[in-house]
Design a protein that fits this description.
The protein is α+β, with helices and mostly antiparallel strands and 159 residues long. The chain folds into two domains: 85 residues, AF2212/PG0164-like (Elongation Factor Tu (Ef-tu), domain 3, Beta Barrel); 52 residues, no CATH class. The protein contains six helices and seven strands. The chain has a seven-stranded antiparallel sheet. The longest helix has 15 residues. It starts with a strand and ends in an 11-residue tail after the last helix.
């Protein structure tokens, strides 16, 4: 774990801290990569977090979501005490049982789903898992299947 202090900035609606180069170098070494999202964990003002470090507009940023900031008692403009390290634990998103059933019934949609990037697969699974009612799960799984068949967009995206 590396420690640093940084001011919280905001880009668009997203609060973040810039990660210093020495900290980045250690994270890259431990992650075995210096490109793409890097899973991290640590503490923000002593409060534990799990997050993903990303590069946006040429700067590596640790985005600070609302629960993280609230737990730490800080917000945009404040100084944050950050303890951060590479998180080697897999970030597995389970597939909703109803989506699994839909793929059993539609092998073509399943094949297209398997060809999507891992991020997009997780994005779809996470969205379906977040739905509260049976009706919304069914309605959105139908949309996902149509999306995978190339018949409509889903979550504002084409295939």
């Amino acid at each position: 774990m590396k420690k640093f202090t940084a001011r919280i900035f905001k880009i668009g609606i997203n609060p973040y801290v810039k990660v210093p180069l020495p900290v980045l170098k250690e994270l890259f070494f431990n992650a075995g990569k210096s490109k793409g999202p890097i899973p991290v964990n640590g503490k923000l003002n002593g409060k534990k977090f799990i997050q993903t470090l990303v590069k946006y507009q040429g700067i590596w940023r640790l985005y600070l979501n609302t629960p993280m900031r609230r737990a730490a008692g800080i917000d945009v403009g404040d100084m944050a005490n950050v303890e951060i390290g590479f998180d080697p634990l897999p970030r597995v998103i389970s597939m909703h049982p109803e989506l699994k059933k839909a793929f059993v019934q539609n092998k073509n949609a399943k094949a297209v789903f398997k060809k999507l990037s891992p991020y997009r697969q997780k994005e779809i699974s996470r969205y379906i898992n977040s739905l509260k009612t049976t009706a919304s799960v069914e309605r959105n799984i139908s949309k996902v299947i149509k999306h995978l068949e190339g018949k409509e967009t889903f979550a504002g995206r084409n295939l």
